[in-house]
Amino acid sequence: MLAYHAAFLLLVAGSTLFFVALAALNVRHADRAVRERSEWLADTLGVDDPEELLDYHRITTAASQLESVVVLSVVLLVLYTGLFGDAVAAVHETVANDLLAGVAVIVGATLAFQAVSVPFDAFDTFAVEDAFGFNEQSPRLFVRDTLVSAAFATALVAALAAAVLLTVQRFPEWWWVAATGVVAAFLLATQVIVPRVFLPLFYDFEPVEDSGLRDAVEDVFERAGFTCDDVYVMNASSRSGHSNAFFTGFGRTKRVVLFDTLVDQLEDDELQSVLAHELAHWKEGHVWQGLAVSVLQVAVLLFVAQFLLDTAWLYAMFGAPATPAAGLLLAALWVEPLSQFTSPLSNRLWLANERDADAFAVDVMGDGRPLAGALATLTSENLGNPFPHSLYEAFHYRHPPVPERVRYLTED
User: Fold this and answer.
1) DSSP assignment of 175-214, as one string?
2) C-beta atoms surrounding 102 within 10 Å
3) Are the CB atoms for 68 and 23 separated by under 8 Å?
4) Per-residue pLDDT tens digits for 78-122
5) How many CA atoms lie within 13 Å of 139's alpha carbon, on the beta-carbon side?
6) Mean pLDDT over residues 259-267, rounded?
7) CA 162/CA 164 separation, integer angstroms
8) Which pLDDT score, from 0 to 100, does residue 229 have?
9) DSSP labels for 377-410?
């Protein structure tokens, strides 16, 4: 059993420390690169205060890595004190139905993770984001959003957990195949549920009707050979000064959403270029490719988890009852590093698709400079780090670095 504990700690703690070290390497690289290319930042991206960008990058990175270490510490504490095993046993003793008990265990673990993250979310909102002028939330609104998010997550996780646990009961030999299908259906459903049910709990969505903005949107849609009546502006500024845009849904549920902050920051042609880029992800099939890759990753992880669930040592390590819910949670800790360390493989597809989307936007607009201008504004306004370390980029970036994109978009 000692060998299993050593392997577990090496895998779980080792992966966390690896990514902490990688984040620290990325900060040092950014510090050097930003100072060396401060003139380029000012001339190309309009970053007049590189020290502010570096400060924001340092503190957000430090806060994120501290959270990962604290969460890991709490998980290990709960496991090695026997609290996890006792809690699972107590739930199954209280709830007679095994399926409902399993759902309660998984939902409880999800809420516990969220509870541990709340202090870090509060620090990020009221210390970091506020200090850099991004936060627009009041403490009361923060509490309200946290509770609503927890309630929504409970509903979604309960439904997903029930479906997956049911597959374990009904198909003991091939449950991972059925569970992969369940997750695939869940991912498809979230394409509709998140923008149409979840986000409206927090933001107002105003349809873009007769206006100069609507004309600009319809113009780029026509150029791209695309039709979509549902175009909305979301009042993201009610909570944050960050800006973005996204395209979601499929079939009749397609929807384009622009942050009001983005509309305020960009010129019409820049906004059109961002829309063209987002539309490319649907027109070129990138949305379906991304879903397929996600489902494939889930299938691999569930396949590995199947073998873990059939072992006695998985439960004996922490004195947990040999129930499917406990097995899935413990197996998740083992397979999560596998997902993290293989992320560069899936990121290659995302990077290729982002480059294709940039090329599509250039074709639609007839010029790459509007998108380059939009990227410059977004980077400077959001205090993004334009110079990631190559190793950090491989693990974490799904978009090419801004300098690479600007160079491609502006070359003759």
Assistant:
1) HHHHHHHHHHHHHHHHHHHIIIIIGGGT--EEE--SSHHH
2) 28
3) no
4) 999 999 999 999 999 999 899 999 999 999 999 999 999 999 999
5) 3
6) 88
7) 6
8) 64
9) HHHHHHT--S---HHHHHHH-SS--HHHHHHHHH
pTM: predicted TM-score of the whole model, two decimal places: 0.89
Burial class (CB in 10 A: 0-12, 13-18, 19+), 368: buried
pLDDT of residue 210: 62
Both tokens assigned to 369: 């400079």
Structure tokens that stand for 221 in this block: 């849609």
Mean residue pLDDT of the chain comes to 91
Give bridge partners of residue 256 from the DSSP assignment. Answer: 231, 247
Torsion, CA 92, CA 98, CA 101, CA 107, rounded to 10: 140
Q: CA 158 to CA 62: how far, in whole Å? A: 33
193, HSE (Cβ side, Cα atoms, 13 Å): 10
What gap in Å lies between CA 72 and CA 365, rounded to an integer? 47
The predicted structure's pLDDT at residue 228: 63
The neighbour count for residue 204, using CB atoms within 10 Å, is 12
Q: Are 207 and 218 in contact (CB under 8 A)?
A: no
Which residue carries 């009361």 as its tokens?
Answer: 140
The three-state (H, E, C) secondary structure of 95-160, written as one string: CCCHHHHHHHHHHHHHHHHHHHHHHHHHHHHHHHHHHCCCECCCHHHHHHHHHHHHHHHHHHHHHH
The DSSP H or E segment spanning 247 is strand 245-248
